[in-house]
Amino acid sequence: MERPSTARSAGGPGPDWAEGAESVAAAESALPYEPAAEPGPPTAPASVPARPAGPARHAVAVLGAHLGGGMLAAILARAGVDVVLVDSPHDATTPSGETTVPYTAEIFELLARRYGVPELSALGHFGELPAEVRSTSGIKSSIGFVYARPGARVRPHHVVQFNVPSEHGESHLYRPDVDAWVHRTAAGYGAKVPSGRPVFTEVRGEAGDFTVELADGSSIGAAFVVDMSGPDAPMLGRLGPGPALRPLRHSSRVLTAHLRGVRPLEQRVDPGKGGTPWTGGTTQVVFPGGWIQLVPFGDRRTGDTSLTSVSVSLDPKLWPQTSASPEEDFQQLIRQFPDLRWQFAEATAVRPWSGSEPWQYGANAAAGTGFVVLERSAVRCDFTLSRDVTLTAELVHEAAARLISAARSGDWSVERFRPLEAFQASLIEHGDRLLRTALTATTDFRLWNAFCRVWLLHSMFAALSLKRARNDALASPGRPDQWRELERYRGAGLWFPVYPGFVALFDDLDQVARQVADNRLAPGAAAGRIFGQLQKASFVPPLFTFGDPGDRYYNFTPLKRVKVLLWAKLRAPYMVRRVLTPGATVLPDIER
After folding, report:
1. Other residues' Cβ atoms within 10 Å of the Cβ of residue 583
2. Which residues contact 328 (CB under 8 A, 6 or more apart)?
3. Could you give the 3-state DSSP secondary structure of residue 202?
4. What pLDDT does residue 194 have?
């Protein structure tokens, strides 16, 4: 069938987280599966009984009018839930993730298809975003890794680059404009928005009778609160007598800013014969104990007016804070790397530098009586490898199912939201393991070279597996358990059917990295072990040559695509074949 167009104005309504991982997964699997009600045509709002006086009452108040809060509010409103979207004091000041990968795009597509909000798929298909958002954001054609050592120029063979398949057109999301567009989309579907968009100042009351106080002196009533507001989230203190947040094992200092006049790295570090200019995509400059992620915006990415997002993550043990100023900390860092010193010689900040130590945290719980605490209120992770945006989309997908079902049944009990709590905890644990492994891999280029291939393989097959699961579900409309296969956590951050080999490979990478971190295994030996597994794994298409340390460029050409399909048909394990070939159980008009 033809997919609904997303080109129309968003202003009007549209159509129609090792040790803890096992216990989290076990707790979740013990919870009963409850299929979520699907949207269908909008119904009468699920609201609370009318009150004789006081502020306007709503079924759900979403605190945090950013990407995550806006997407969730749009979905709930589309499903007929009486929802109000409230701005947070931190919406515009808390640094946010700005890049996507193909897996992120598939989650956006899932949100659009499952919940009937087609605009959301445009977040994973750059060309479908409104022109004004495209002009300030930008397409992401590659993700590149440049390995640097203090006091030395980058070596020519210490670069790796993966070029993104063209079918998605991955994005660099300029969050002020993207978040504003998603906010308009939510309002267009019927989400209530306080006039003038005042930020909230306090939440009083209890389940069924919350009052959200606003900065302009007005207030809003809500039966249930979804707190996605960020630091100092008001609902965290209601989660129990113990600490609401805990530091994650991966702990780093994070510095962020938007800069103008960043020189193009390709003029200093040659991408190589098989590469493309670094400014065409996201670049991560990796060095022992940290990395700098560069995200250029817009169509013009060179020159004095070019805008680049810069995010720095530093191991505080190797890179302790030496200045009270985040900008001076950054300057002291880049002075140790000749290529970076050249690249940032003329750059100036247009969004002031911010810094935090430590940056990463996770909530000890999420579900309370009459509320849930999600996303940036419950977890703060690195922006590297697109974790921030991806995690946001994953949590919106799961939260929407639980909230719609609660609204339609009238059951808002804490137990109903325990699966959502367990799901968020499992994703937090996965992200923590991934970043710990990545930080260990910065020890040596050989180890980083191996790590980034496992990450890419995981991301690729996660995207393909999610697409298959989504299309299988769409091929069975009306079944009570239609979406069940997308609501069960399976390890390694995966919550849909996937070949078990991917989970085993990720788990072994984590174990190898721990041995390196504990000085029980040399980085070179660890890299050799990982490359050996990639060479032998039956589920890795031979054409990708991920097991060859010298093949440092990934370009998925049409000819390579045909060869991979032939391999999939003749030699791949069954579950890999299913995600690499059109399929069998899927109707052609459902495939995108």
Report:
1. 17
2. none
3. strand
4. 97
